[in-house]
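Objective 1.3, modelling of assemblies. Example input:
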Amino acid sequence: MTPVLRTDALGKRYGRRQALTDVTLSVPAGRVVGLVGPNGAGKSTLLNLASGMIAPTTGTIEVLGSRPAANPAQLARVGFVAQDTPVYPGLSVGDHLRLGARLNPGWDDGLAQQRVSQVGLDPTQKAGRLSGGQRAQLALTLAAAKRPQLMIFDEPVAALDPLARRAFLQSLMEFVAELEVSVLLSSHLLGDLERVCDHLIVLAASRTQLAGDVEDLLAAHYRLVAARGDLDPPPPGIEVIQATHTARQTTLIVRDTTGTLPDRLPAAEHLDLEEMVLAYLGRAAEPAGTANAVQPLEVSR
Amino acid sequence: MIDFHLDARSGLSPYLQLVQQVQQALRLGLLSAGDQLPTVKEVVARLAINPNTVLKAYRELEHQGLVSPRPGVGTFVTRTLTDDSLAAHESLRAELVAWLSRAQRAGLDADSIEALFMTTFRKATEVTP
Amino acid sequence: MIWLTWRQFRGQALVAVAVLAALATYLVVLGLRIRTAYEVNVDCAGCSVEAAKDVFESAYFTPLLLTGFLVVLVPGIVGAFWGAPLLAREFETGTHRLVWNQSVSRTRWLAVKLGLVTLAGVILTGALSLLLTWAASPYDKLFDGRFDPLLFPTRNIAPLGYAVFAVVAGVTVGLLVRRTVPAMAILLAGFVLLQILMPTLVRPHLQPAVTERVAWTAANAKGLLINGAGEVWTEEVAVPGAWVLTSGPQMLDAAGNPASQEQIESCPRAEPSAHMACIETKGFQMTLSYQPADRYWTFQWLEVGIYLLLAGLLAGFVFWRIPRGLN
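Predicted structure (tokens):
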């Protein structure tokens, strides 16, 4: 099956600022992909490249097997909701649905009308007067009713209060259950995405730090706690992501590359998603030259 | 019908939480054979979780022989877990209450009691899985 | 796409229709009055053309000049209020990110928007220009001054070129600046500058001017000036229907040498017309540069062509730029 997103050595430069560096990814179809990283890590750049809003400086990107936004057929297959969910302030909710119906040959008007009434949007209301949560629901409806194969959301819940955030994710997951659509969404808060995504891409300092199915990632990462010096050098077949030392004790967050670590070290403990992601973000922030550029990931639930 | 909930602090993956909640409901007699589980869409709409998580939990329950899907209708409970153990619940609960009051008299606070119980529970279940 | 463009544009279109209706009514009334005045003052036995000119000048010079300014200004307003915000407002509010992700290519999106708004601008400007040309035609016939830099851009087809150019230029500025109000200001300033540069620096040279030595007559020169050095200059020169590029040439005597104060003063001081008649008999000459009257339509087409060419170049840039995304 064609990957929904495939990039090869993808890079994007704005003037002198390198927003994205050497990103090579392949995301299989049917996933809800969480793109996580601190602000300024390059998440929006990657999503804008995937939706064809901007063109890459180096490398290649393919979405559903084609160049993003190459033609109307490709546009029809991808639903993109940009950051801050832009809508036409002077047009009503109903006008936006008419816009969707006129500009998308595969428009599912039944779905759109049903969603709009289900989330309680008044079709005569001007979009400029909607709350952030209502705007997000309208943008989600517009993206879903064109019946795309992939929906892309850039920080969809960042500006929403917890209730609207929950409502948005509920609607989104309903669409996923109903429409068999792949989803790619970003957030600087892992907590927003933890429940909904089954594939994770961690981006920091313009590079991918980690990518894969959540289940596989969790299965391959462990915490090793031992007396200081016992893990020096670390056992073979593991990659140390993060090491912290106290006077007597060493804690390692490691990735098992062999699949045999629990047999060799029964004391190895599994991590939760947040600890794993934080370890990678911590590592990305370490090199002296880039330390200032990367803010720590905000963790909140 | 069972109402799922998720505890973000439990450390258990969402799919395992769903499996355990069904198992627990079966043990406590809240669900019995023939009952329908919520549809994937209903669970997703309520909890805002990935549909694949729900599907995976239902597949796991099916694998354990507890539920079976009827295409186009939903997922139904095929067997309960109440058998003999439910009868033993009452006397065990009474013993546990007695133990708890002994622990309180010995000066343990709630956190200490929970820590003592959990470490003993873990050790015991590790020895006899 | 046409629906969306119309939906976004209909408010402005209604304003335009209202303005056009008001101006059209005014121009029709003005045109009918001028026609009546023409019949009374010009198409009558024994009427004096000079007297009619005086009547027309005092009654209609100002209204026609002002409506003429309006016709030149309308393309600028259209460019600033319709052209400049067309893309700039989308970028400013981020809505391009919504519409670019519908199943319509950006090229088509741009083509429909630009096409419809340009068409609206041309219709509005064209209707005004046509009405003014009609209303003013008796006046223009009487004075034969339609080649004049003040009248030339307000009559016939030249305003159509301005309208197309102004809309496309507004869109281009909007694309480059991406902010509505600055884009409007830049467009207006640029358009006004171009409307000044065109008649002063470009239009006179579109075809080589005719330069010839003509007899100084009381009819083609309004008066003469004598400076401190004793040199004699013509005050103002007119050639019927032509665009005279030389303003106030030096007077030459019959032999072709600069005329002197003494030569002028050989005519006795008298009342002005007799004095001028005397001077006329002395055979003075002057060297004139002008674009003859029969080139009027050539110049109209050249003017339209130049503005359309500029608009085409800008449109080419916009159509090249938009599909590449905004980096």
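The beta strands of chain C are 210-215, 224-226, 232-234, 243-244, 285-291.
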